Amino acid sequence: MIMKSVAIVLAAGQGKRMGMDCPKQYLLLNGKPVIYYSLKAFEESDIDEIILVVGEGEKEYCEQEIINRYQFKKVMQIVSGGSERYHSVYNGLQVVQNAEYVFIHDGARPFLSKQLIEDLFETVRETKACIAGMPVKDTIKLINQKKQVEKSLDRSKVWQIQTPQVFEYQLVKQAYDKLFEQKISDVTDDAMVVERMTGHAVTLVKASYKNIKITTPEDLEIGECFLANEKTKNDKFEELKRR
Ligand SMILES: Nc1ccn([C@@H]2O[C@H](COP(=O)(O)OP(=O)(O)OP(=O)(O)O)[C@@H](O)[C@H]2O)c(=O)n1
Ligand SMILES: C[C@](O)(CO)[C@H](O)COP(=O)(O)O
Predict the structure, then answer these.
(1) Which ipTM value was assigned to this complex?
(2) Residue having the nearest C-alpha atom to atom 11 of ligand 2
(3) Are 5 and 46 within 8 A, CB to CB?
(4) What does the angle CA 207 – CA 158 – CA 93 come to, to the nearest 5 degrees?
(5) Is the Cβ–Cβ distance between 193 and 172 less than 8 Å?
(6) CA-based nearest residue to 65, from 90, 104, 39
(7) Per residue in 119-175, pLDDT tens?
(8) Would you say the CB of residue 212 lies under 6 angstroms from ligand 2?
(9) What is the C-alpha end-to-end distance of the chain, expressed in Å?
(10) Which of 51, 114, 195, 231 has the maximum number of C-beta atoms within 10 A of its C-beta?
(11) Given ligand 1 and candidates 8, 14, 78, 216, which is best to mutate, with the most ligand atoms within 8 Å of its CB?
(12) Edge to edge, what strands does the sheet with 75-80 contain?
């Protein structure tokens, strides 16, 4: 049996912090929906198959306006998400078949690079569990309920965590099955599920500060700037080639 690499792309959130009528994954960035960019990155990578997880009642829209319109050939299934991110991940994991590795990615992170996908592939083959992240740039403090500083952390040991989060399929499936059996709900990423439910070590892969999650309105402005810069670079490159 041929074992595949599958990407589960999450797009079932409501985008409450964005505060717009439309869920943020469908808002436009340089004329294309936010979700388009990460689907395109996976489409052009060594990933074999993409599972898209969407909100209730959004399947038809995604099929027509995203998958068909942009001709994504690797999106094999569209499934409904749940009320929290971890429910949506679990729904995606249930429909995965014959997979060796699973990339779990926030559809709200459009700046996923080809290099990062390759680096994660290389690391997961060695470690079975790895996640994208970057060292924090600010000073980080633990505070108490009165908002007083309790402790300053050694920031050389603190990273901000992104997606993709990549695992051997059996490992992450087993971890999520246990999470649901034990009805645990205080988890905000997949690595936390694997760490707590299996004890397996999760390795960090240095990603990029550009791999932001579109969360609040200013993130859209930042995203537009990134894309405008990319376009300028590409235009200059094309001009140099013509000369
Ligand atoms: N029930 C949920 C919640 C989140 N997500 C997805 O998980 C990613 C990261 O979540 P977040 O930024 O928190 O998105 P939202 O839940 O949409 O945002 P908010 O918390 O502001 O409502 C997004 O791609 C989002 O679509 C999901 O698939 N299902
Ligand atoms: C998984 C994640 O993107 C890592 O930074 C993040 O935790 C998801 O954020 P959420 O707001 O909890 O959905």
Answers:
(1) 0.98
(2) 188
(3) yes
(4) 55
(5) yes
(6) 39
(7) 999 999 999 999 999 999 999 999 999 999 999 999 999 999 999 999 999 999 999
(8) no
(9) 51
(10) 51
(11) 14
(12) 75-80, 49-54, 4-11, 99-106, 159-168, 129-135, 203-206
- C-beta of residue 49 within 8 angstroms of C-beta of residue 132: no
Write out the two tokens for 154: 């050694």
CA distance 6 to 124: 13
3-state SS assignment for residue 31: coil
Ligand nearest to the CA of 82: 1
- Whole-prediction pTM: 0.96
Query: Which of 10, 106, 167 should be mutated for ligand 2, with most atoms under 8 A from CB?
Result: 106
163 lines ligand 2 (CB under 6 A): yes
Q: Which amino acid is at 231?
A: K
Give me the domains of the chain, ranges plus CATH numbers: 5-242 (3.90.550.10)
Query: H/E element holding 191?
Result: helix 190-198
